[in-house]
Amino acid sequence: MFLTVHASAGLFIGQTLHQPVWSFFCALGSHYLLDIIPHGDEGIGWWIHGRPKRIWWIGLVDLSAVFLLVMMFFHFRSTPNVWPFVWALIGALLPDFLSETNYQIRQARAPLHQFAQTINKIPFFDRFLYTHNTFHHRLHWLIKRHLPWRLGILFQFLLAGAFFMLALL
Ligand SMILES: [Zn+2]
After folding, report:
1. CA 89, CA 28: separation in Å to the nearest integer?
2. Sorting pLDDT into bands at 50, 70 and 90, what band is 13?
3. 115 CA to middle of ligand 1, Å?
4. What local confidence, expressed as pLDDT, does residue 1 receive?
5. Distance from the CA of 62 to the center of ligand 1, in angstroms?
6. Mapping DSSP to helix (H, G, I), strand (E, B) and coil, where does residue 159 land?
7. What is the CA(82)–ligand 1 centre distance, in A?
8. Per-residue pLDDT averaged across 2-12, rounded?
9. What is the pLDDT of residues 35-61, one digit of tens each?
């Protein structure tokens, strides 16, 4: 699922829970739960196939959308305490960053491979990343039915909008 959807769920959680620890763990849980729902990402593999740069473009657009969403949120809503939001956003986005790090470590031709190798010197980090990635990946296949990618993108767009509106309430 796109980071934009996870980030808007994170904003909603940060708005609802005022304890940073709770907002972090709930947002982390929300990531895994949302990934279980069929969301059409699996269908864009053909578009990326053989053209790994395309995944970077998707990532760039997705991250820019996250940045815009967060900026818009704090423009519309002033909050005395940003920490529940900060921790909720970290929790909501963390699983995809961990899986991306796992990919960068294992792909010698990946652009951030050397950097990822440096982080990988942390004891047990490699095992942790591998186990986490297996778990994270399997969640996407718990429900065997998948959405066509166009419908999936529309669904994710609506879901991100719904979480964002709820966060603004
Ligand atoms: Zn994910």
Report:
1. 9
2. very high
3. 22
4. 92
5. 13
6. helix
7. 24
8. 97
9. 999 998 876 766 777 777 788 888 899
C-alpha distances in Å from residue 121, one per residue of 68, 87, 105, 127: 34, 26, 11, 11
Region 88-114 average pLDDT: 92
Long-range Cβ pairs for the range 22-28 (8 Å, 24+): 23/84, 23/85, 23/87, 23/88, 23/91, 24/87, 24/88, 24/90, 24/91, 25/91, 26/88, 26/91, 27/87, 27/88, 27/89, 27/90, 27/91, 27/92, 28/91, 28/92, 28/94, 28/95
The encoded tokens of residue 168 equal: 């603004």
* Three-state secondary structure call for residue 129: helix
Nearest to 40 by CA among 163, 159, 164, 130: 159
Q: How far does residue 58's CA lie from ligand 1's centre (Å)? A: 14
Q: Distance, CA 118 to ligand 1 centroid (Å)?
A: 24
> What's the gap in Å between 37 CA and the centre of ligand 1?
11
Residue 55's pLDDT is 80
* C-alpha to C-alpha distance for 153 and 168, rounded to whole angstroms: 23
SS3 139: helix
- Cβ atoms 140, 35 nearer than 8 A: yes
Tell me the average pLDDT of the chain.
Answer: 92
Q: What three-state secondary structure class fits 28?
A: helix
